[in-house]
């Protein structure tokens, strides 16, 4: 599971919906894997305003990843500067900056392969196996 | 022909043998691809988006979502998250190394994402399963309510969802679209090849309040 996904995932239990502590879910005993993927600049630009940055920083630190910048990058910072005609690909296509590549690395290439995700409100643990999280709830918790 | 929904719940029906049969049948693959493209055309996506695939199965639709627009996926490549209740289906998706994130989850229990997460959602041949209630504590109405309520909240304002499904009859069609409307969606039913054995029903859902710019 990508850290991007974890930045949107909440506890599935109904009574947790209204509690701020049910987001983000906290990884425990997590095994990480880097799964390389092509940088999709337009996607990063699209998703940027929807990220919960403080929570992403918290998760990164809980996973022992390098500390993320305090502030979320500006949209403009995702695109390589265009001085001297450089940074512009064929047909005037935008080139992802180092900031965009770093963000891509954290959000889309850093994956939780094994472990658990724990709700900060109810303590429910969701198992992650081979990157797949089990969100099936027993009937009484629905 | 008996409908699989009438025989067993999906997690039992799509056991390893059935899952593999479903995924390797080239006829089913072709139909699934056609319906995915049809759903995509109804979603009007113009930029790489975050998409929820409800009942993603072995990732047949997801593989199309991951393609660039030059390969016929409007606005692609998209990033997708798939939910499915069948672990056998998900195992096949894992073997195929699909790029979307997979969840073992029952959409009838809700959609566990924060408000405004997704640009769009699609579902191919899955939501008729929500009309099955397997236990005495569950009703189809309750499952549809949790699903559409969760889906509505998880889509961004101006977002869209397209659910192709196989309604058992007109009453079920009405029950499903009424549940979507009750959750807040603007809903329309679209039928391709109506009255034939190839009839396909698409529930097209819109979330008001944003710009429909994709
Ligand atoms: Zn919880």
TrEMBL record, chain A:
Organism listed in the record: Lophiostoma macrostomum CBS 122681
Domain of life assignment: Eukaryota
Name listed for the protein in its UniProt record: Trm112p-domain-containing protein
Molecular function terms from GO: protein heterodimerization activity
Pfam family for this entry, one: Trm112p
One of the GO BP terms on file: tRNA methylation
Entry's family note: Belongs to the TRM112 family.
